[in-house]
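Minutes, project check-in
Item: structure for the 121-residue chain
Input as provided by the requester:
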Amino acid sequence: MERDQVYHSDPDILGGTPVFRGTRVPVQNLLDYLAASRPLDDFLTGFPSVSREQAVAFLALAKDAASPPLDASAAGRESRLAASTRCMTLSPFGTRDGAGRRTGILLRAAAAEFDVFVTLD
């Protein structure tokens, strides 16, 4: 599935937060479920408007965006994905006092700026 079939960002829907296409479900909810070691089926049960195909396609897009290219064809695929998806990785490691507050501010800024972002805990 193409990115725009899986998720999108619209300023009129949740202030531009990336959501699964045809829903008001933020893609971050899926990442939160998985980060909490909850199975994909729990997410799909909790958010029935998101199809399994959309969820799996989103994870594939996120994986492709986060994976380094292995060869020239992978590099071409990654550059096409990067051209259509703005991504960021945020790590709170190495921060001092106020890291939680500062990280929260960075996460809100990233949500407004990027299509996909991944946090490392």
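Outcome recorded: The radius of gyration is 15 Å.
No further action items on this chain.
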